[in-house]
Amino acid sequence: MNILRQILPISLQLSKCLSTVSTQQAFAALQRNVPPSVRAISTTAPRHDLMEFFDDKKNWGEQEVKHGRGWTKDDLRIKSNSDLHQLWFVLLKERNMLLTMEHECKDKMELFPSPERLDKVKESMEHLEEVVRERNRAYYELETGETGERPGKVVPNELGIRFYYRAFEHVIPKYANRKWNERHKFTFGGSAVWKFLRLYRERLYNEKRKLRNRERNEVVHLLRRFPNIDRETLAQRFPTVDVERLYKLDKIRMNQTVKSGSSSSST
């Protein structure tokens, strides 16, 4: 009751000042006038309400928004745990804002400026999780000799498709847990399943083969159009294609001789 008696006149005085004083100024005046016994009760300073979910107004309608690069693992490894904790919430807030702006632009059929920002934020969050996981593994290996992560293994499902299953702790043992055994069957069999697996693997093989052929044709087109292109950079761009072998093809060398002959005749 004593605390309420002290707060009541202050609240009345604050309500009278709200019409002429801004919110932040009123909050500062309240902190100055509150006695030490009442100042232990903390309140959150007001921000911008739901506008935190939207980008700055100066970026609305722009075709491109200036932004930096994402956080790499090397940048995050030199940060402390408290810095990583704060950075995680900054990235989470940025991701929510970008997702809101992307949805708003789709709803209004407008162009979302610089959509690569969302990819960089997601990549930064993935790198941050990996760095935190590295520190956790190092700590547990130093203290207990184990990684400290949840154990798991690669198992097949009822259709024969392999996936990584993370283990969980259960009160009932595995041999006595009837519900778990009914829902988790890591075996497969039957002619229908084997037929499905054969067709599924054939489809995956055809997709890889088509992708490999597309990359090969693109490399051939680049070599024929730009004979002096840097082959090392091209090999890094297309790691599945043997650039040196394609460079020795007759149709590519013939195209180079024709271009060199035409250039010499023109001179």
Automatic annotation (TrEMBL):
One of its GO terms (biological process) is mitochondrial translation. Keywords: Mitochondrion, Ribonucleoprotein, Ribosomal protein. It is found in: Mitochondrion. GO terms for cellular component: mitochondrial large ribosomal subunit. It holds the Pfam family MRP-L47. GO terms for molecular function: structural constituent of ribosome. Belongs to the universal ribosomal protein uL29 family. This is Large ribosomal subunit protein uL29m. The lineage of its organism: Eukaryota, Metazoa, Ecdysozoa, Arthropoda, Hexapoda.
